[in-house]
Amino acid sequence: MNSLLALIIAVVWVILVYRIYGRYVDKNIVQSDPKKTTPAVMYMDGVDFMPANKNILYGFQFKSICGLGPIVGAIIAVHWGWLPAFLYLLLGVAFLGWIHDYTAAQVSIRKEGMSLGGMSYTLISPRGRTLVSVFIYFNLMFGFGAFAIFIAGTLARPDAPLGILIWIAMGLLFGQMIYKWKMPIITATLITVIATFIGIFVFSGLGPIQGLFRAISGGDPSPVLFGTITQAKFIWILFVLAFCYLGATLPIWRWAQPINYLGFWVVFLAMCATGVGILIWHPSFGNFPAFTGFVWAGKPLWPLMFVTLMCGAVSGWHSLVSSSGTARMIEKETDTLPVAGGSMLLEAITGVLALIIAVSAFGSFEGYAEAFRTGKGFVFAKGMSNFLGYIGIPESMALTYANIVFAIIGFTLIHLGVRFMRLYGSDVLGEFWPAFKNIHFSTLVSIAIFAVFCFTGVLTALWMLGGAFNQMLAAMALLICTCWLASERKNYKITLFPSIFLGVTTICAALVISYKGFVHFFTTKDIPVDRAIGDWVTGVIAVLLVILAIILVKDGFGSIARFAAEGAAAPAGEGAEPSKAE
Length: 582
What we know:
The protein has helices spanning about 5-30, 40, 55-65, 70-75, 80-110, 115-125, 125-145, 145-155, 160-180, 185-205, 205-215, 230-250, 255-280, 300-310, 315-325, 335-360, 365-375, 375-390, 395-430, 440-455, 465-485, 495-525, 530-570; strands at about 225, 230, 295, 300. It is mainly alpha-helical. The model is unreliable at about 570-580 (pLDDT under 50).
């Protein structure tokens, strides 16, 4: 396989999926209606509910869903060979991923901007709401700890922080330009994007600037906390937490939306530049095995590859963004397909680019393995810089850009993660402790819990467990969407079968992870304390995940059967009661 051929196949594939399957579902099954009043218009409060231009929303959605999952996941998954990962990216996004993102947004729009917890209450059961909300809260709580460590490690490089700071400042300026100064989107985009790239390519490489950030980070690489956190990581984790606090508390238009929109351009242009590098260089996959075997390092391809390679194929995180974020800003229902469905299909291309980088940028499997030992972020940044070199970007500048792209990809998810933790914490805990209804108190509690996982590093290595949680959330979201389609007497099989596949796969993955965690805990001598705790927690959480999934599946399938029976008993032509928007 040639890298250019792989990229062409992926691009053609996602275009066909969008134009054929996507438009069919949107027009004939969900039946989106541009005349229906959306929650953004109905409940506009300037905080979470706010109509936005679909072009801005596309950038926001893409950068809010496209995190380190498709990159790190693809870089790990190719240990089983490039062919299984490549096939799963293409087939997963076509039959699991885009339909998950699209229906999660569309159901929330039809349910007046409800979160997944609220929708599970009305469509599954009262305890379904509690289970889903608690599950999401804990998923976010430890799932993003690994992201914070990755970001902090990148920011410890002296050439990265200034570009990040300028990107944040320009994102805030973009929001001011659009919503306060009423400037045209194209003008505001050009000004802020150009200024951001000047910061990245001109000022980030200056000696005095790098000297300043080198002094801030400290030169001593020895740990200062918990045996793993250096001074540089400690400082930049604090910076990440402050960034998350602002993202969780400020109105969506002031912080999260414009910053993520601008992040889209930084990442998308990097993808385009890498694509041009592939066009010029087009290295072969010949020195990288297509399939290394069903088991890698004691990990079976099924089910573990399917929870390792997440976001590029399907991701439960996307349902949170689609329902609790984008659905509250969609101006017309017909914008949902290009915004939610289209963003997911572009993310599959991100995963394919990460795969191409891993298997071809280092010349061989041995070259990839050597880079992998340095770090997953290094594989991505160094590999991308190799491709950028073929379009004339100097190596040092290309490496700086690639590292900043890697950091931005993490940043644009992590502050929304804390925002959703605050929302779900307020929703569940606010009923028992009114203090959680306070936006700042709930956020600070989320930040404090989040900080524990960041600084201790107990769960940062548990990528597959995080993947299991994430994919179980996708199965839950698809189950909720299935219940809604059944209640509306629509073809619910388009979400039912993906939900079953993900549910079975994730439960099996959780059982494997639980078994391996407990075996490692009880059989390994002289294991470090943090790893011992991690193994034990892995086993326990994986078991709890299985129990939760079984309960929710039982309630969900009961609701589907009930809705299907009601639909069969209803006279021809009758359907569900119209929503308030109708």
